[in-house]
Amino acid sequence: xxxxxxxxxxxxxxxxxxxVTHPTVNEDAVIVEQYATSVNPxxxxxxxxxxxxxxxxxxxxxxxxxxxxxxxxxVTNFSIGDRVFGVTAKSPGSTYxxxxxxxxxxxxxxxxxxxxxxxxxxxxxxxxxxxxxxDRMQLTDKDRLLVIGGAGGVGLFAIQIAKHxxxxxxxxxxxxxxxxxxxxxxxxxxxxxxxxVHTLSKTFTAIFDCVGGSSQDELFPLLERDGCLxxxxxxxxxxxxxxxxxxxxxxxxxxxxxLLSKLCALYESETLTVHISETFxxxxxxxxxxxxxxxKGHTKGKLVMKIQEDEER
Length: 313
Fold this sequence. Notes:
By secondary structure, the chain is an alpha/beta fold. It has two domains: about 1-120 and about 275-305, Quinone Oxidoreductase, Chain A, domain 1; about 125-250, Rossmann fold, CATH 3.40.50. The chain contains eight helices and 16 strands. The strands form three sheets. Strands 3, 5, 6, 7, 8, 15 and 16 form a seven-stranded mixed sheet that branches. The chain has a six-stranded parallel sheet with strand order 11-10-9-12-13-14. α3 (about 125-135) crosses α4. The longest helix has 14 residues, at about 125-135.
């Protein structure tokens, strides 16, 4: 079976086409024929050796978008032929592949108005935004949220989900991403190239940091007392959190079918939209180009890899 991954850790040039064993199904899982997947920052970090104990070859990827072709005997909520999307709990999830085995509780039926490419862009980034803003921050219409990296894959979903939850949203991004963040629903957009974030005169009840970096420390004075800073990019300073009497944490996702169900409903109601900035072929060159782009940062929206040419099967 064709897959894309690495035989050793290193740069994007280590990415290559692999021939791996076709996955087998267990009683609580399904086999999905992949039509598309997406490329996330996590992928290049794993490729570089973030988890040094992984066994080679390593097939990267977390996002699932395809059709069920086989299912285990305990799978009752899905049928062969169902179009599904999802995100793997294991990391990496080996979704840069023609077929993937996945537990039934890590997938959900694809939104009826989403093609395979759109469905591939939703799971990891969408679950990350939804879990952090809805479940962990528990945003309401009383909150004022600052999103750092508002034009990225997670950031654009965060803006839309926060608005759905009733919060007032300020989003930070580069000069050429201002309109994109406005279109996502941000009440205010900040061009960090013109106005450093730490110079803002207003305060927020919550901050969602999708970027990390040393500038994160400058965010703490922008939080109100008892506010919350969550980051998907860097461990926040416990010392600064204590000094400013706020909660701060680095977060990782815990995929669930209930979150995927909520994402599906938000997409079907057009409350949530997907911005795909570029689509890459399922080839060695395609995956190398995708990794090169996402490593540079400043990606707007999502990068998707088309595994099957016939998207509308």
